[in-house]
Amino acid sequence: MSEREKTIAEVLDLSKPVSDCPECGGLGEIGQLGSRKVCECLVIRVKTLKSELDRAQEQNRRLIEERDAVAEGYRQQVKLAGELMDKLLFVREQEQKLINKLREITNLLGGVTFTDGRQWGAYNALCYIVEDIEKELSK
Fold it and tell me: What confidence score (pLDDT) does residue 7 get?
């Protein structure tokens, strides 16, 4: 048990002497002709408890502020992740629409008779693009 913990335990247990006070023997009261007077050692014990309580409350306040800051950062990260996921889904949807249109174009052009070699080259290039995209998506 640390010295601080011992002091707190002693202060909390007022039924036992906690000091070597010469006036009260650590009991916290001094009897004088039928009246009782609070000993200075008891006042010191109460002040010690009060300062420990103040210190604990300050530490608690700082921890709460830190927790709140971390929680706010987490909320912002979750919000950002949601926005990025929405954008990703939109891009994937647009990508799929583009792929479907490319397939549709290659299918339509497949039935056309080309008389110019440049037309065949363009058609073949378009077919290769669609094939590459399908290979990439199948991974």
Answer: 66
How much of the chain is in helix, strand and coil states, percent to nearest 5? 75, 5, 20
| Range of lowest pLDDT (30-34, 77-81, 96-100) | 30-34
Greater confidence (106 vs 71) lies with: 71
Q: Are 29 and 39 in contact (CB under 8 A)?
A: yes
- DSSP track, 2-46: -HHHHHHHHHH-TTS--S--TTTTTSSEEEETTEEEE-HHHHHHH
Pairwise CA distance, residues 9 & 16, whole Å = 11
**Which residues lie across from 29 on neighbouring strands?**
38
Confidence of residue 80 (pLDDT cuts 50, 70, 90): very high
First to last CA, the chain: 62
Spatial separation of the C-alpha atoms in residues 111 and 96, rounded to whole Å? 24
Cα–Cα distance for residue pair 11/44, rounded to 1 Å = 10
Higher local confidence (pLDDT), 116 or 91: 91
Residue-range domain boundaries for the chain: 3-138
